[in-house]
User: Fold these one by one.
Assistant:
Number 1:
Amino acid sequence: MTRLNDAAFDQLFHNARSHPTYAGKAIDAATLEELSALAGLAPTAFNQQPLRVLYVTSEEGKAKLDEAIVPGNKPKVAAAPAIAIFCYDANFVETLPKVFPIADVRGYFADPAGAAAAGQLNALIQSGMFIAAARGLGLGMGPMIGFDPAKVKELFLADNGWQPLYFSTLGYVEAQPEYDRLPRLDFEEVAKVA
Ligand SMILES: Cc1cc2nc3c(=O)[nH]c(=O)nc-3n(C[C@H](O)[C@H](O)[C@H](O)COP(=O)(O)O)c2cc1C
C-alpha cells in the first residue's frame, strides 16, 4: 500500500468539516447504497457489521423526524438533502451465521448487555468509516447527538431491533462553514507511546 496523495488527505481530513448547510442537490439512491457498502467494509468483531442506517430524504420523512430533533438542530435538518440516522441492530446475532460462517460464535453474545455493548462499539467504528467514505465520495456531513433516539425509534423503527445512536446531515458541500475549526488536542495529550 502507498500513502494517498495530499489532495486526498485534504478532502478526507484537513478540509473536511462538520457542515451546517449544503447545496440543494439531492443524493441519489445509488450513492446511499455505495455509502452503506463502503461502511460494510469496516473492520468489526467477528465481522458482525451491526451498523444500520435510516436514511431520511423525503420532505414527508423530514417533517416526521422534526419532532425528534432538539430545537437548536432543527434548521440544520430542514436544510439538508438527506439525514442518516446511525443505529446498531440489537439483533445482529441473527446474521452472524451469514457474516461469520467459519464458526458459530453466537454464544459469545448470549448476555444481552454484552451484545448491546458489542453492537454499539462496532456500529460506531462503521459509522466513522461511513463519514470518511462520504467525504471520499465528495459529500459533507454534519453529525449530531441532539435528538431523542426513543422518539426516532417510535416514529420509524418500531418494527425492528434497530437502536438509534446519533444522526448526521448529508449533502453536497458548496461552502465551508463560516466559523473556524475548533482547536484539536496535541499529540502529547491524546497519545502515549510505550
Ligand atoms: C457524536 C457527535 C455529536 C454532535 N452533536 C452535535 C449537535 O447536537 N449539534 C451540533 O450543532 N453539532 C454537533 N456535533 C458537531 C461537532 O460539534 C463537530 O463535529 C466538532 O466541533 C468538529 O467540527 P469540525 O468537523 O468542523 O472540525 C456533533 C458531532 C459528533 C461527532
Number 2:
Amino acid sequence: MSLREPWMANMLRDRKLCVVLLTVSGIIAAAHALGISLWRCPFHVCTSLPCPGCGMTRGIVAILQGHWHEAWGHHPFAIVFLAGWLVFLGVTMSPERHRNTAIERIAAVERATGITLVVLFLFVVYGLTRTVVACFDASNAGGLGKLRHPTSTQHHL
Ligand SMILES: [Zn+2]
C-alpha cells in the first residue's frame, strides 16, 4: 500500500462499481430527503455510539437543502463527500474519452499529493474521536443505555 496510490482514480476506472455506488447512495439520500430511512447504521444500532460515517447522509441532504449550519452539525465531512460524489457522478457519466482523461488527471493529483488518503485519514481520526467522546459522555451520563445520538443533542447545546 502506497501513500501515493491513486485510490479514487482506481475506483473510477471500474465504471460498473461507480454506477452501483452512485445509485445506492443516491437512492438512500433521496429517500432520506423524503423522510424515508432506508439505512440504519449497524454500529449505532448495536452500541448507541456514532461510527465515523454516522450523520453523513443527513449532512449531505442538509447541504442540498441549503442548511449549512445543520449539515456541519451532522457531519463536518459531508461537504467533502458530496464533492467527491459529484466528481464520481461527472466522471462516470462522461463519454469514454473525457472519462479517461479525467481519471488520469485525478490519478496525477493523487500521486502528487496523496490527497485521498489524507482526507480519509482525517475522516477516520475525526470519526473515532467523536466515538470516544460520545462513549465518555455516555459513561458520565450513567451508561450507554442513556446515550442519545450526538447530532440530536447538539441542537440543545
Ligand atoms: Zn454509523
Number 3:
Amino acid sequence: MENEDLKSISKYKIEVYAKYTKGVYVCPHCGNDMLDRFYSNAKGFKDSHFGLMLIIECDKCFENFCSHGIGQIPYFLENVAKGKNKFFKPDEAA
Ligand SMILES: [Zn+2]
C-alpha cells in the first residue's frame, strides 16, 4: 500500500452503501458484467472493515457495488485523467 496513492484519492472518498461483489467486475444485484467499462463507472472510494473499497455504479440497475480498491487506484486515476470517467472530469484529477 502506497501512502501517495492514498493521498491522491482522498478527494474521491464517498460515503454510500455498496454491496461487495466477489466477481469484482460483475454487479451483485443484477449480474451485469462491466469488465470493459468498470473504471468509467467508478464513483469513488470508501474505507471499510475489509480495507479500501472502490465503489461502482451499475449502468444497468444503477445500484452501487464495491470491490477491493487498493490495487485499482492507478487504473481509476488514469481513467479520470483520460476523461473516460462518468462522475469525474480530468481537471479534477490529482
Ligand atoms: Zn446491476
